[in-house]
Amino acid sequence: MAEQRNIVIVGASSAGLMAAHNYLKFILPALKAKAEAKYHVYLINPSPNWYFRVASPRAAASTKRMAVEKLVFDIEEAFSKYSSDDFTFLEAAATGLDTSARTISYKSKKSVNDESLDYHALVVATGSKTYYPAFSQSAGTQEVFNAIKITNEKVEAAKDIVIVGGGPTAIEFAAEVAEHRNGKPGWFGGVQRKANITVITAADRLLTPLRPAISKTAEQKLKALGIDVVYNSRVVDAQEDKNGRTTIILAKGDKLEADLYVPAYGVLPNSSWLPSNLLNESNYLKTDLKMRVAGAGPRVYAFGDVASYSRNNIWDILFALPVLAVNMKRDLLSFNAMLPDEQPKGKDRVYTIDTREGMMVPMGTTGGVGAVFGWRIPNFVVWLAKGRDYMLSMSGKPAVAGETVKETAWTKEEAAI
């Protein structure tokens, strides 16, 4: 019987799903043609569903604006087109990694103790989580549903709402909440406030990756929706009382009261299960621009938000996928059992980070602000591309089903293995 070599992908984030589909569609057939061993891919994720977090600001504001059920997709169904001889989905949480033994530990709901799985190649794609649970999924689907439900209820009843953050999630959520509670601004004026909504940011402007002129436009749109913006202010504490009202304390000593307090700034990498020596000072997995993990041994890769190369945006997933695809395929096809640690000949592909402006931020259902590849885009284009349904129809089911993953062509130098 042929030796089985396991390809283990940890995390069914956007990055993990893309990596799994890419392997099954384009790398596995080439490995089967060599007929040296049997290859099997394991996809490990704590939830059986993928949460389309891109659209979470709209659903979190109100499921009347977007039903949360539309944002959840069944992972096993999406991979049902592949043979069970080639693919297994494990509903489990990764608990440890032993790079010397080349094994990963995981725990499922079905077992009391941790289980272990050896890997020939490993892709870590566990992504990141937000501070506010409605905007990401790091556990089960029901936890997300509960967070959305609680947020919806507070949005409906709140008189005072404070949202902290100056990035896309904070701005999108604030605009969705304001439009839901206060309505859309008219041609000749703003709205009648039914809720007092305040956005607080530590920066001196909104959406700092974009040019100041776009930041100013975003501010004007928020104000037209009846939202106050507070700059250069950092939250140092937030305490919720028994009645559900939160006291927010700013670094300068000011205090605000809110019926709904939403920390919508930044993310945390899902890396607590990884060895500390593989993580940088911010707990991201140390990854070079070839998608390989430094110090983890051969054929270990990181992809997406959990990796240190990433700036936690979709561009660093989409544009890095060809790099992972090429280098992983080269490593696997050139593998020599007599020299298992040997690097392939030829040239690796290296990821080049695109520093041009690239962000689209819907602000309610009528448009928004943004730039693509360094070009500012008008309000109606933001609405057309993203604001209508947060790209759900274009990037929801097609993404989880792997329809957006295309084969990457090799250069002559890369093919010289």
What does this 3D model show about the protein?
With 417 residues, this protein is an alpha/beta fold. It has a domain at 4-132 and 267-350: FAD/NAD(P)-binding domain, CATH 3.50.50.60. Helices cover 26% and strands 24% of the residues. It contains eleven helices and 21 strands. The chain has helices at 14-34, 56-61, 75-78, 141-157, 168-182, 212-224, 315-318, 321-333, 379-387, 392-395, 397-400; strands spanning 4-10, 38-45, 49-51, 72-74, 87-98, 103-108, 115-118, 121-124, 128-130, 160-164, 196-200, 227-230, 235-240, 246-250, 255-258, 260-263, 267-269, 300-302, 359-362, 368-372, 375-376. Strands 7-6-5-2-1-8-18 form a seven-stranded mixed sheet. The protein has a four-stranded parallel sheet with strand order 12-11-10-16. A hairpin with a 5-residue loop joins β13 and β14 (246-250). The longest helix has 21 residues, at 14-34. The model has no long low-confidence stretch (mean pLDDT 94). This is FAD/NAD(P)-binding domain-containing protein.
Structural class: alpha/beta
Overall morphology: elongated
Unreliable stretches: none
| Widest sheet, order of strands | 7-6-5-2-1-8-18
- Residues in β-strands, percent: 15-25%
At CATH level 2, the architecture of the domain at 4-132 and 267-350 is 3-Layer(bba) Sandwich
Which percent bin holds the helix content?
25-40%
For the largest beta-sheet, the strand count, sense and barrel status come to: 7 strands, mixed
What's the CATH C level of the domain at 4-132 and 267-350?
Alpha Beta
Q: What is the number of E strands?
A: 21
User: Mean pLDDT score, rounded?
Assistant: 94
Question: What is the name of the CATH topology of the domain at 4-132 and 267-350?
Answer: FAD/NAD(P)-binding domain
In terms of quaternary structure, what is this?
A: single chain
Number of helices: 11
Q: How many whole angstroms does the radius of gyration measure?
A: 23 Å
Write out the CATH superfamily name of the domain at 4-132 and 267-350: FAD/NAD(P)-binding domain
